[in-house]
Write a structure and sequence with these properties.
The structure holds three protein chains of three kinds. By secondary structure, chain B is α/β, with parallel strands linked by helices. Chain B contains eight helices and ten strands. In chain B, strand 7, helix 6 and strand 8 form a beta-alpha-beta unit. Chain B starts with 7 loop residues before the first strand and ends in a 5-residue tail after the last helix. Chain C is 74% helix and 1% strand. Classes of the chains: A alpha/beta, B alpha/beta, C mainly alpha. The site of adenosine-5'-triphosphate has 12 residues of chain A, from strand 2 and helix 1.
Chain lengths: 257, 222, 339
Amino acid sequence: MTIADERTPVLELRNITLHYGSVEALHDVSIKSYAGEVIGLVGDNGAGKSSLIKVISGVNTADSGEVIVDGVRRHWRSPHDSMAAGIETLYQDSGLAPDLSIGSNIFLGREKRRSGLLGRLGFVDQRGMEREALEQLARVGITIPATQRTVSELSGGQRQAVAIGRAIAWAKHVIILDEPTNHLGARQSAEVLKVIKSAREQGLSVLFISHSLPHVLEVTDRIIVLRLGRVVRDAPTSEFTVESLLGTITGLNESPS
Amino acid sequence: MRSHIKVFNVDSGSSYQRNITSWVTGNNTQGGKAAADALATAMNYTKDCTAAKKCDVAIGVSSLTTSTDAARVAAFKAEVTAKYPNITMLNDVVSQSQPSVAQSAFAQDISAHNLAGIFAVDGTDAEGATAAVKAAGSAGASIKIVGYDGYANNIASMVAGGLGSLSAIISQQPTLEGMLIIKYAVAALQGKKVPHLQTLPNITLLPSTPASVLAKYQYVAS
Amino acid sequence: MSTSVDVSGSEVTTDRRLRRVVTNQQFVLFVVLIALILFFASRNSLFFRVGEFSNLFTDFSGLVLIALAETYVIVAGGIDLAVGSTAAVSGVVAAGWIQPLVNHGVNQAVVLLVGTLACAFIGALAGGLSALLITAFDLVPFVATLVTYSVGAGLALVISHGAPVGYNPGAIYWSASGIGMITWLVAIVLVLAVVLGVVLHLTVYGRYNFAIGSNEFAARAAGIAVRRHLISVYVLAGVLAGLTGMFFYIRSGSGAATTGVTNSANLVAIAAVVIGGASLTGGVGRWAGTMLGAAVLTVVSDGLIFINVPPTWIQVVVGALIAVAALLQSFRRRSRRVT
Ligand SMILES: Nc1ncnc2c1ncn2[C@@H]1O[C@H](COP(=O)(O)OP(=O)(O)OP(=O)(O)O)[C@@H](O)[C@H]1O
Ligand SMILES: [Mg+2]
């Protein structure tokens, strides 16, 4: 296919199968993603997109198949392991704790501790976290005047921005965005696409899930189409138009893969 | 609807009492009166309680709806009203069968009033009353307690004497009650006529009661 | 590039700040507490004495540990109905274990220390049972802790035969010793309560507790070991209930199977937490709120006895109090949505 094959993928999935009880959500799914590449993951409702990224992030464990990061086969015992490996995920169903402050959410699961004995006793450095949260968000282009307020006091779009900011701020290798433009107006959506492009420039591998096909076509390098838990097409974005992509998703025009 | 199962009852009764073949219980009315007399004696009523300086008495019950508690308290109150007009009775303390609840409530009564006596209507309340008076220290020094039921702890507290000890225990006759009801049950099943209700008098146990007698009335945990 | 998140109201006006203080649950509770104390004192001036405050502190201590246990559990999105019977079973078992020491005249400090460890151990077992049912068998906390409640209450009765266990007047005398209105026993409980507050609000452990109760998925997705944390929370609640059992043993000099059961101590503790402003759906709750909630409940139930109100009315008043607190909370939530 492309020259990309000669490099080691940052992230590779091989033959992933996943069941929820008797429902088969993923069937023999294999994908590769490379540094500095944006992949679009598309498919109808229930096609298995969210299930796939939950396998990558360690929320779900596949029934069979392999997760390989930087050429090394990995096994996640919890999302903690994937985070430690530099993979950040923005979940479709909110990954924020609404009753905690914005700052606490940015640092959720990796709380900054106070220095010295207090830190070893588990005391959190709340002020430090609020300050750094501001900086981290600003670094990825999200400005907020105060991080002490709880997330429940924000609008849906504001929450989404905080969640994106958190994922981008912490990502080292791979960033997964499951419908990040949900709840966002046109202007904010455009900002998110800019954020994705800048992540690519920083050399991150981006997995972008969206139902907005123009967005996918605008920002991605390659598109993977899922249908009923299977990969039905994996091709460079340049090979698609909105119409052909829609046909592939719905299965109405079976173009050769 | 009446079934053919014969029911025999000891101690506390229920509202279905008329369907019971035989019921043996302590005489709670007599017991309540005996408690009033024992408490008045312990408080030195004739000398220390006057119309000018009335004596406050707290009453502890486990539940306001238990028949035994209600009967004992009613008799106690009637006796006090009739014979000891210089005693003021406070509102009942309800322990819900819990010594610590009784203890907290008695502690309130001790600090709110110039308490001279406590009538603890059962073992639980006696346990709470003795602990409350002990914990009150000097504030409880002159408080007399009359308890009910010969629990081991109550008898030990009475015998030990000193702060927060029981001045008297009104005791049922559990051994006799049990023996009687078995006798009646056997007789009733053989078709003989048995008394529908038999009440046994309660005994007043005092610190001066000989140990052998105390042992006879001590309740034994099964 | 600026995906600008504008969080409105970042400049707080004085007027607004004042309104926030007045609708603040802790502030309201504090005012209510002071008003209650003044009311009872106005009905009977003896209320304002060191001895009575000592009584109040003692009764507060019997409630506060299980109320804080309940705070941890409720903030984590659960509920624990077992705290009362766990206190009962710990108290009677430990009372039985340490009575031989009492009989042999062993130093009271040693006796009580052994009893305390025993109670903590039995409480941990009870909490462990709840945790097992919740995390391994996927029972909802309400049902799981109801099972533990029944097992504990039943065992306490079986072990004690319904009679008080042990006889240790020395413990009662020690429970009454201390400085001014604070007994040693109360001082120990208060120190423990402060530690629990610090852990809840200032440490990573406490932060995870809020995160899990606020959004369990988010907590798990953020790499928090949710299951392990929940196990630890129920065990902690069990230990605190066990220590409460020991508290009542020391106070009364014996253990009773009815302690914490017949007065529905579990519901009183939950009431303290709710009055304190916590949300039963998890994620929201404050140490100070629970402390004040427990204090208000203690002052009301003690004060009503103090001014010689008939016992039947006391439950009605306490019920009304909980209703008012719940109303206040929903009013506050609504007013926040408006601003
Ligand atoms: N927790 C779950 N338990 C049981 N079945 C599930 C669960 N999550 C997803 N499924 C099922 O797995 C299949 C794939 O769901 P998934 O959420 O991965 O779809 P999706 O492609 O993300 O859809 P959408 O575009 O609507 O977000 C669906 O049939 C769905 O019903
Ligand atoms: Mg999805």
